[in-house]
What does this fold into?
Amino acid sequence: MYLSKSFIPILKNNPSEAKIKSHQLMLRVGMIKQASAGIYSWLPLGFKVMKKIETIVRQEQDKIGAQEILMPTIQTSEIWKESGRYDDYGEEMLRIKDRQNREMLYGPTNEEQVTDIFRSSLKSYKSLPQLLYHIQWKFRDEIRPRFGIMRGREFYMKDAYSFDITDEDAFHSYNKFFLSYLRTFKRLSLTAIPMAADTGPIGGNLSHEFIILADTGESKIFTDKRIFDLTSEGTNLEKSSLEQMRKKYEQFYSVTDEKFNKEEFEKMVLEKNRLITKGIEVGHIFYFGDKYSKAMNAAVDLPGGKKDFVKMGSYGIGVSRLVGAIIEAKYDEKNEIMKWPLSVAPYDVAIIPMINKNDSSALEKANNIYSELNKNNIDAIIDDTDENYSSKIKKMNLIGAPYQIVIGKKSEGDLLEFKEVDGESQDLPLNKIIEIITKQKNSN
Ligand code: P5A
It folds into this structure.
């Protein structure tokens, strides 16, 4: 891809309306364009990153045996009246009437919709457990949409739902998602900490938010620092192994402000281990038993002939919010350098030829490198404009491909000037460069 032909509308300066760095960068490099308050179009660069995040989220859902479905964005009010949430949800719900004057709504979440699908399809305990998920747009008429796509009104969410017979089985499903979330965020090169959280309008009494640290985050957190040293590596999907893993996390005090209790905090956490800070909620999981299944009559036959309501949980990841969250974690605002994790980078490599009007050799060389990288599944962008070196580097530093190859006067012979976007350059032959990038890509 040539930069001159790509739809990447870069701004010279930071847009003044953006208050946090992710919003600034996303507008600056044309990842998104605001359509109206809290509603955005996704332009090629932003869309590419979001799709890559979505793919990782999907792969990790599939790995725990969840099955993908797709529910509509528009729902009927009837199922929400059955659950009792139609009135409770209040003004955050966007209510719509169709031409027959039927009350419809743009789904803010899908507990009701999925319970309706379940109850009409499955009738026996033999079909359980079931884990279903979809990745779909949501709408919440947030009172204060802000920070760009971080708190949007329309946003892209992965939401999953589990169905089990007993509480014990349901906790096992919950734990599967708990592990799957840790794995997902790790592949996005984020450290997300699970924290005991409030359940709000979703309901239930067991819930964890997954939070990444950021000064600009909207969640206040109180935690024992040692939780950051934990890993879930090696955890398999067996009941006992998952239970142990969750316990390992839960032994450390780690809560959001709704759950904060000063006395408890001071009793349980030594002063040197206390951390009070802010973070971004990138995921949230809930266990609410039969809250929806009872209200909506979703029951299955049990072995003895009796019936019981299924026990459910729901599990959300903010896919569009993650684009901003990764920027908050990785963007060096002072030096204006973005370094996307290779797993979600819009391009793996930026090829930066210094083009001289009377000599097309640098561009030719860039084209050859491009096709060689392409053969090796490495996605590159060539800056084919005739701007000067520093403005080219500046632009590419903002676009944030993790690697750069500069073709200038210095690049004689087979050696190329290669660097990580935030690192020192070294002279390497192309095959060595391909080896480095491929190795890095495969490690994810
Ligand atoms: C869990 C899945 C739920 O809605 N029902 C289905 C449950 N949970 S939640 O916490 O309300 O949302 C899940 C995640 O979605 C992201 N999110 C948002 N992203 C951008 N803008 C918003 N306005 C917004 N609201 C929620 C968050 O990442 C949240 O963890």
Observations:
- The mean pLDDT is 95.
- Residues 220 and 278 are 5 Å apart (CA to CA).
- The two ends are 24 Å apart (CA to CA).
- The pocket of '5'-O-(N-(L-prolyl)-sulfamoyl)adenosine is lined by residues 109, 140, 142, 151-152, 155, 157, 159, 202, 281-284, 286, 314-316, 318, 320-321 (CB under 6 Å).
